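Issue: copy button drops trailing tokens. Both records pasted manually instead:
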Amino acid sequence: MIISRAPVRFSLGGGGTDLPSYSREHGGYLVAAAIDKYVYVGAHRRFVDNIKLAYSKTETVDAVEQIDHRIFREALKANGIHKGIELFSVADVPSNTGLGSSSTFTVALLNALHAYKREFVTTEQLAEEACHIEIDVLGEPIGKQDQYISAFGGITAFTFEKDGRVHVERVDVKPEVVDELEMNLLIFYSGIERSASGVLKEQGQSIKSNTDDAVARMHKIKELGYETRRILEQGRIDDYGALLHEHWSNKRKLASKMTDSVIDEHYEAAIEAGALGGKLMGAGGGGFFMFYARPQERRAVYHAMTSRGLRPLRFGFDFDGARIAANFHRSLEI
């Protein structure tokens, strides 16, 4: 039995500039943070030769090609595992909520399969393999942020080159600033699950056609990514709240499904309660809100959101990235 885990993430600044529709023309830059909410994947050698999968549904098949779950199927094919394995997945947070859980699952799965085969892979290789499966093989309209931050962990800056290369840099944040950021960020679940694909496809088309100056908005969001790093490294933590508000003001206009009247009402209620800024995680349209509030306004924002039916998420930052949490694997036949 092998248990693999990988963390989901918060995009702190510059989110979306990793999308191919933008980064391949202009290059992208963002700062993301892994948090202590995980996707777990277990791998176990079966006595019989078929394949069993357990996630939100259960599959038992005789051949890899018969697997319905696309990521399970392609990850097994990529690793040359065709029989005699049982895999399961559980997660600390719901899927389709803007925390990158799909890519996190891919990272955790690949790490488990490499451990199953007794192979060592670097963190960068793990991230790139996840990107290859999701973007190149499955054709998802996503960038590389989620795979890389899940693999590397920490509070990390990523530069996305036009040729697809990714440069990874740890953001030099002092421990006391990390503690203050954890305290001042409030995360709430809107209760709305949505597929990111539709929003991202529309956003990508807006960028390609430059609808409503979409490219200029993305340039501004990238600038906010650089400013996020400066703010965090200089410890100017309250400035981050205002930056969040500016980020959301630009992002919400990139796609028609990015927000709606209910989401806007939640956001305005948080601002009226004292939040300095906020945004929806991920592609938008639902999922988790992030708000920044100073200690004196934190309780008011908390009550404003919970009274509207939003569920809070307590968190800490994760600095480990993808890990094999347990390995009791003794023998292997493929």
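Record 2 (pasted manually too):
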Amino acid sequence: MSHGIAWKQRSVLPGFGLSMGLTLLYLALLVLIPLAGLVLFTGTWITLAEFWDKAVADPRVLASYRLSFGASLIAASLNGVFGLIVAWVLVRYRFPGKRFIDAIVDLPFALPTAVSGIALTTLYARTGWVGRWLDPLGIQVAYAWPGIVIALTLIGLPFVVRTVQPALEDLDHEIEEASASLGATRWQTFRRVILPTVFPALLTGFAMAFARAIGEFGSVYFIAGNMPMKTEIAPLLIIIKLEQFDYVGATGIGVVMLVAAFVLLLVINLLQWWSRRYQA
């Protein structure tokens, strides 16, 4: 207060009303209106019987769901294990090239998915650097479900590492020292002290990697081979039905994937809420 006058401190950013308005407008134009249009089209132009036949009960569609969700679950599980190991190494150890490896973890974020798909296909094809050694053993990676899992693991790894890394950085070393001083082995310290602390973050990273893998298209398209009933994922089947002018089938599959995305989003938010409550 100066000379009896109270001056209100001005904020650098716009006020709440303007900020909220711009936020809602931005989200409506980019997210809400397109998704609402998809649901409205489905409810208006597609009968329940058509939706069931083309998006739920069709054997080809069911096979694509099983592959998409199954491969995504396996990839997210692998990332949960190895992502924790990578985050542990980056947080707890100092070694030459650490910054380079730390930057490499974020490469799938910046790398176009088509490029990663082509690179993996070249590597794991029967004539590739790795595939030529696996083929005599009867192991087929490219144009089979293992290649899809590898592609989904690649694009999902950063989600786990970057979610677990801050939790490990906040973990106090004195807790581990106290556990060791009480006679606990390294495995007991990890299982009873470290893992319970980082588990909420690990679970959140797992859910995010799983959600990202379900909607992945570019990297899987090249390495899958896209054989119906075998290596055909749900996002690819949507593109195929659009090319065949089967808008009803494409929209129905899109609605199913949209519902799955909302469920996963709800799960992720619940896990984040639980993680904040647990750490508090």
